[in-house]
User: What shape does this take?
Amino acid sequence: MSPSTHQRINSDLLRPLFQTSWRFYLLVAVFGGIVLTALVAWLSQAYFGFGVTGLKWPIYWGFYVTNFVFWIGISHAGTLISAILRLVDAGWRRPVTRCAEVITVFALMIGALFPIIHLGRPWLAFWLFPYPSERLIWPNFRSPLVWDFFAINTYLTGSLLFLLLPMIPDFAVVRDKATGLRKKIYGILALGWRGTPKQWHRLEAAMSIMAVAIVPVAVSVHTIVSFDFSMAPVPMWKTTIFGPYFVAGAIFSGIAGLLIAMALLRRFLHLQEYLLPIHFQNLGKLLLVMALLWGYFVFNERLVTYYGNEPSEMTVFWRTQRESFAPLYWTMVIGNFVLPVVLMGIKYFRTITGCVIASLGVVVGMWLERFLIIVPSLGNKYLPYSFATYRPQPVEIIIAIATFAAMTLLYVLFAKFVPIISIWELKAGGPSERPGPTHQHGSVGPVLLDQPRQ
Amino acid sequence: MKAIYGLYGDGMSAQQAVNRLRAAGVANREIVVISSQPMEEFEFGHMDSKTRIWWIACLGGLIGMATAFGLAWLTEVSWPINVGGLPTFAWWPNLIIIFELTMLGAILATVLTLVVTGGLGRRGGVYDPAVSDGKILVGVENPSESRVRELESALGAIHGAQIKTV
Assistant: This one.
């Protein structure tokens, strides 16, 4: 690759760091405002108590646990997808990996907030921690919630390091291009990186090891989240299929989240020459596979319940398919199955717009899926005396909306301070993986980089 | 003088420069190569590639596993509650904790090894910001005064080289 191409890649990918448009401030103001509103809502919940929410016996898990499971699921976008593509050495991954890994870290951070938000008195959160105390609390160390703690923290630590390590060489590029205070800050972040063969070799070896380690951890995380449900004797929860069903759903929603993020980055950061239609098409095919897998799991779950005809389970079954939850259920089926299968299955629709529409459907559908797993089962447990309904209150709705705003805000801030596409990985790729003239729809052939720019 | 080096526009030229330095009697450990991307397709990109990082990761995993086992055993035996008739120290639920901490141990050991053996966090050493623009730096740090002219001619013999001394 010629030095002029290096300079061009540097200039394109560092542009958002050195130039700030009014759109950045607008986005920060709007999404920051929504997050602040949610903070006020949460503080009011802490002040007035849990009565301001719709959570009451027997439905203590509503929007908050739905959000927890949903965001942990979305977190599977990044590290898992990035690690798998790295292990199979898929060259097209290079512009995609960092966009994906960032989603993982932020989604985990947002998801991990919900056990705290879900506490009536969050300042007593330390009562949950299993430490030796004089209050004669004997914590249950075999509880699935303990597994959650270890799994989520391992995944968050691993994902954070998996994101940070490949950023070091890029920080060195920013250090070389920046001036003044910015140069000093990025100089510290670059940790004295020079780019000797030894450093490159160690970095790549470390990334390979972490990719090997992070894939089973990612699978374990959502399996363990599913155990929060399947270990409980609640109708339609106690099923062995929940582990793989949750993992598949997590990857599914993760890919959808990644596609939406990529489309937005492409448009607002002018990355048309880096995030090519082929990247969307390849991820679109993965989305299609996951939609089919999701359909397969839902069919299994539904058929086994239906054939078993166990009264308490059939109550929940019909509530979701025919009765009060039916509109949400069939919206979920359309969003998670019909839309992605049609749009991603037909090559004509597998465009960037098609991918975004299908992904939006999946994000809505997967959120509804989490909700429909939790609420109908808790509201229809065994005996009719414990039947109840759940109506989310404004505080819960505001906090749920704010999670999406928080994700966007964190993403915007990250893209402002860190190259959102890994510069060195892009340079290290073959000519077909580097930028070139913008492709027309359907043109997915290799782009020759060292040709003069048109 | 701290270093003498050449900047090259492509890997082939950098490889030639490395070969010429070797021909001039410079040992591999004295040659400094710096690039803005891994250069695995060239021989110089494999200098210093021997590493025990995989073994250290395994060791980290074993330490994580032992820690998890100890933690699970200690906590469960110290606060023995009867949970649905499970043994006080039950293997099935504990395997989850053991797995997670094994992986965490391997990950942390890997990162620590990278930081230590990759020399991260250490300052000093020859560097040129032109590397970020795709130039490849090949040079020698702290050469003896008597060899400077010889090294200069070795590095400068390649077409397009920019020779610098700092």
In short: Chain B touches chain A through 62 residues (CB under 8 Å). Residues 91-117 of chain B form the longest helix (27 residues).
